[in-house]
Amino acid sequence: MKIGLIGAGNMGIFLLEKINKCGFLPNYSIVSVLDEREKAKNSMPALSEQYGFAFFSHLNAFLTSGIDLVVESSNIQAVHTYAERILREKDLLVISVGALADQLVYKRLLSTAERSGTRLYLPAGAIGGLDAIKAAGITGDLNSVSLISRKPGKALVNGELTEEKVLFSGSASEAIARFPQNANVAITLSLAGIGTDKTKVTIIADPTLETNVHTVQASGSFGKMEFTLQNRPSPDNPKTSHLTALSILSRLQSLKEQTVIG
Ligand SMILES: NC(=O)C1=CN([C@@H]2O[C@H](COP(=O)(O)OP(=O)(O)OC[C@H]3O[C@@H](n4cnc5c(N)ncnc54)[C@H](O)[C@@H]3O)[C@@H](O)[C@H]2O)C=CC1
Ligand SMILES: O=C([O-])CC(=O)C(=O)O
């Protein structure tokens, strides 16, 4: 499986380490990296040599570089810029899922994928239990879904906090507009469940925490569920839970597996 990567930051470098250096996913390789921004011309050659990928500063050349799949680990803006053009030709894994909060954008990407015979993968990222949320909602009987995200102060606010502070309470669509680097999970949860307007989100900065704590609650005709993750932040980006990068690896691995669990 030849992968093209967009976004060689915290998660992108982790993927390059695990896939290209450690050979963690046999028969997978990140062969191409896209960055059209001027500043990339300085930083990419060293990384390209270190991890053995070809660097592209134009989308068309990137897409015709022999890749089977594109992995996005950059930001919401890059998804808006590239996703539709990529899905016309290649499967795409998006981790900046907040880009799909707008129903029109999401539907347009789905219809592009359908027309083109490509697939859009949205890993669970920093949360889990999406299999249960999808199952509970399959007959339309999922009534309520909510997410409470607590993070250490430094992931959410500038300056020191002395006590816990509720920064936001509202819908998932409002949450991602206010916290584009902290509420991607709210959109993934919404897409798996009852949508971005009905999914309720609370975001709390807590100076006593060392983990990113996400609690998902749901109820419907199936019963009730509640689960909490206490995620270690990534060493290179305190906003991003380390589990997110692991969920990309896991999704990539499952593309070649014969057994589908969940
Ligand atoms: N779905 C989920 O559960 C989660 C999603 N995320 C999201 O995942 C994304 C990546 O997270 P991190 O790796 O921690 O962020 P990061 O900020 O460490 O890395 C992003 C990289 O993308 C690069 N980049 C930005 N614009 C680009 C462009 N147009 N073309 C190519 N490269 C570009 C940046 O220079 C940076 O190196 C972020 O959008 C973050 O909000 C983070 C946590 C959970
Ligand atoms: O990594 C996390 O804990 C969640 C996060 O930042 C996001 O969903 O954007």
TrEMBL record:
> Hey, which family's this protein in?
Belongs to the L-aspartate dehydrogenase family.
Q: Which domain of life is it from?
A: Bacteria
- The answer on whether this UniProt entry bears the keyword NADP reads yes
Which parts of the sequence belong to the Aspartate dehydrogenase domain?
161-248
Q: Could you share any additional remarks the record makes about this protein? A: The iminoaspartate product is unstable in aqueous solution and can decompose to oxaloacetate and ammonia.
Cite the Aspartate/homoserine dehydrogenase NAD-binding domain residue spans from the record: 7-123
| Entry GO MF terms | aspartate dehydrogenase [NAD(P)+] activity
**What is the name attached to this protein's record?**
L-aspartate dehydrogenase
Indicate whether Cell wall biogenesis/degradation appears among the record's keywords: no
Q: Where does NAD(+) bind?
A: 126, 184
Q: In which pathway does it act?
A: Cofactor biosynthesis; NAD(+) biosynthesis; iminoaspartate from L-aspartate (dehydrogenase route): step 1/1
Q: Which residues form a coiled coil?
A: none
Recorded hits in SUPFAM superfamilies, A to Z, give: Glyceraldehyde-3-phosphate dehydrogenase-like, C-terminal domain, NAD(P)-binding Rossmann-fold domains
